[in-house]
Amino acid sequence: MAIDADSKKVTAAQSTALEHGASITWSCGDLRCMELPGTSFDMVMVFNYLDRNRMADFKNAVRPGGHLMMETFLESQAEFGWGPKSDDHLLKSGELFSLVEPFELQFAREVIEVIDGRNMAVGSVLARRPLK
Predict the structure, then answer these.
(1) Taking residues 114-120, what's their average pLDDT?
(2) What is the mean pLDDT of residues 34-62?
(3) Residue 102: strand, helix, or coil
(4) Which of 65, 96, 107, 132 is most buried, judged by most C-beta within 10 A?
(5) pTM, to two decimals
(6) If you ran DSSP here, which 8-state letter would residue 9 be given?
(7) Distance CA 106, CA 128 (A)
(8) 79-113, pLDDT tens digit by residue?
(9) Are 83 and 61 in contact (CB under 8 A)?
(10) SS3 content of the chain, % helix, strand, coil (to 5)
């Protein structure tokens, strides 16, 4: 299942997935209030979205042995003049690593990278839900 609030992004992603033979259920929805089924997914991916209040729901949606992949903006993104402005949507340094606990970190980073010619400060993790 893939979810995005922007129907144009959902349509574009759906077309790309079909071109590559991927079988994905697509949905246009608001993650702030959408219910996620528990322990239903091998992989949950969350990009450019931060809702600390929903972290337990995102982690709960991952099957034991499955993975959670996240990447979103760090507080230092504000220095670049674009992206989220509210502290509610910006990670403190090291925060993402603790938000995914008790999952086991497989990969973690905090970087400034150039995307489409603009600096972007992000934190990223790939974390595995323990089997027990």
Answers:
(1) 94
(2) 91
(3) coil
(4) 96
(5) 0.85
(6) H
(7) 7
(8) 999 999 999 999 999 999 999 999 999 999 999 99
(9) no
(10) 25, 40, 35
